[in-house]
What we know:
flat, mainly alpha
Amino acid sequence: MARAVRKGDSESMGEEFGDVLAWLCTLASIHGVELEEAVGKYAAGCPKCGGTPCECEEGEAR
Length: 62
Ligand SMILES: [Zn+2]
């Protein structure tokens, strides 16, 4: 995946992200983690600023 990102190849990037996502789902279920729950934390926006996408400025202390 990192190789595809570096190359900026969006087609293979989509493929690679799919692979990573599938791997993540498998790993999560092995450890009994509900991925939906984890994703749901951010579904309503950033827990910090409530923005989607996150509007937190990096390095900004609030
Ligand atoms: Zn934020």
